[in-house]
Amino acid sequence: MAGVFINYRTGDGAEAAVLLDEQLKEVFGPENVFRDRRTTQPGVHFPPELWRHLESCGVLLVLIGPNWLSLCDTDGRRRIDVPGDYVHDEIQRALAWRKTVIPVLIDSARLPTKKQLPADIAELTERQFMQLRVPYAHLDLPVITEALRSHVPVRRPEPQPDPRPAPPAFGAPQPGAYSTYDGCAVSNGSGNAIVNQNRDAQSGDRQ
Q1: DSSP category for residue 9
Q2: Which of 190, 199, 149, 110 is nearest to 4 (CA)?
Q3: Percent with pLDDT over 90 in the chain
Q4: Residues 6+ apart with CB under 8 A from 101
Q5: Is the pLDDT of residue 172 over 70?
Q6: What predicted TM-score, i.e. pTM, was given to this entire model?
């Protein structure tokens, strides 16, 4: 799957992730866009499924909201620094695997500096970013979609059935035409009926 993987922080960018997911799956197909809460089925062992999709994707979109860097856990540690943080680990693996990584700045967010990030994901600051302003999503989403077209296969629409009726089989009677059975009227093409008497005269010979 040379698709798109949406990386986002719960509590900072979740709404934008849904907007982006809805837009991209319409263009590229839901099978080519990964967003954890839509794609992962209930009961699935989450980590292996997550890394499988990340490894097979072509592009990682890192959604960065205004509070992306400052959100902390219950111990007061920045989430981005906590071991096992999925946002951090997805970025780190995508960079290590040389994926196309695109920061997407949400609303008024700014791209962090190298000093603000853990060293193993500091390279994120060297990637050209895009912008998604939620109130102006109708303007920004098409720009993001267009940028992804060179990385992700576009879903081709399924062929639609032809609404026109199928033509009649060769030799089948046309609507309004007469049958050619014995003793029945047949059309001579002028709209007048001619009665076929040939075999009708012989029908009385059968006992």
Answers
A1: B
A2: 149
A3: 64
A4: 59, 60, 62, 91, 94, 95, 124, 127
A5: no
A6: 0.73
